Amino acid sequence: MPAMRALYTSAPGDFRLVDRPRPEPRGEKALIRVTRASICHTDIVIRAGKAGHVRYPVIAGHEFCGVVVETGAAAAHIAPGDRVAVRSILSCGSCLPCRAGRTNWCEHYDELGSITDGGFAEYCAVPARHLVKMPDAVSDASGAMIEPLANAVAAVTQAQIAEGDKVVVIGPGPIGCLVAQVARLRCPSVLVMVGTRGSRLALGVRAGATHTVNATEPDSSQRLDEILGGKGADAIIECAGTRSALELAMEHIGVLGRVAVEGLHERDEKVSLSPYRFLLLKSARLVGVTGWNEEDFRVAMDLLARGRVDAESLVTHLFPLDRWEDAFEMAAFRKDQSLKVQLECTK
Questions:
Q1: Which end of the chain has the smaller Cβ count within 10 Å, N or C?
Q2: Do the beta carbons of residue 116 and residue 140 sit within 8 Å?
Q3: How far apart are CA 301 and CA 116, in angstroms?
Q4: Average pLDDT value over all residues in the chain
Q5: Is 255 helix (H, G, I), strand (E, B) or coil?
């Protein structure tokens, strides 16, 4: 059986580049040659052995794209040579949540890169129905960003942003910048990016923010209040994954506002909430953004294909697979102003 190189984790804390058997595309599966894979914060947590959702052993990586090499006998709609993006949430399509379109809540939930072998490898076998052909206008760099963009689409949808809304995005990381780009397409009257570093806030302006607020400055809360006209925001999307960010969101949400939590928080983290101020005075809503569904992924692909969102400019560094340690260090510690770091798994 042919071998391939893969980032393999056999147990918590054991994360290495090793030779693994190249998977065979049987039945409805297709074998893809992985071209690009993005490093997500979740991957950094997996490498550290602190991810509770991982089923070992597994090949990590859930943001990736590639080229179809071979298909199983039952694979449909794709053929060798097709460039494809990968829907890494492997929903069954038949349970009640799937039939209702909530594929991210599939009763038989599976995911590439944490439960089933993912894309930090030269090759990956994927059920064909979870592969989406990429138009020529979508580059490999963008193709490995469709998964995080689908998360941004899901967050904007959950926040129910409408034309004229006052919107705040907290956390100008890759997801936050994508959220801002998607949110501006809904024509908000105000779009504020809140962060802690000037260089990242500048990216927020490029993404469409009308205002920026540096949360480290003493008067940041007052400045945000002034930008929002003293009445709070209609929608706030929290992408930072910190307690202070979520508490800031709950403080500045307006009457009937929506706070959408996209950021990844620690499992046991707790925040303070005033039922009187948040619920009774404002009738505000707090909603969680747990992954994306197939419609979010379709919208993400369409936005890239039509040039409505620029994901490629967020990719700041590219490493070959054998330099994965450098890539992970770059991503984990944000070295050299890194934003999104990708691995070139094959050429």
A1: C
A2: no
A3: 23
A4: 96
A5: strand
- What SS3 state is found at 59? strand
Q: Omega into 57 within 30° of 0, i.e. cis?
A: yes
332, amino acid identity: A
Instruction: Give residue 160's pLDDT band: very low, low, confident or very high (50, 70, 90).
Output: very high
| Contact in structure between 169 and 176 (CB atoms under 8 Å) | yes
Q: What is the pLDDT of residue 267?
A: 84
Read off the tokens for 207: 């993404």
User: Helices (DSSP H) in 48-145: which residue ranges?
Assistant: 96-99, 140-143
pLDDT of the residue at 167? 98
Geometric angle at alpha carbon 151, from 147 and 152, rounded to 5°: 115
Provide φ and ψ at 252, rounded to 5°: -105, 10
User: DSSP state, 135?
Assistant: P
Superfamily name with CATH number, domain 3-145+311-344: Medium-chain alcohol dehydrogenases, catalytic domain (3.90.180.10)
3-state secondary structure of 330: helix
Residues 160, 183 contacting (CB under 8 angstroms): no
The superfamily in CATH containing domain 152-288 is NAD(P)-binding Rossmann-like Domain (3.40.50.720)
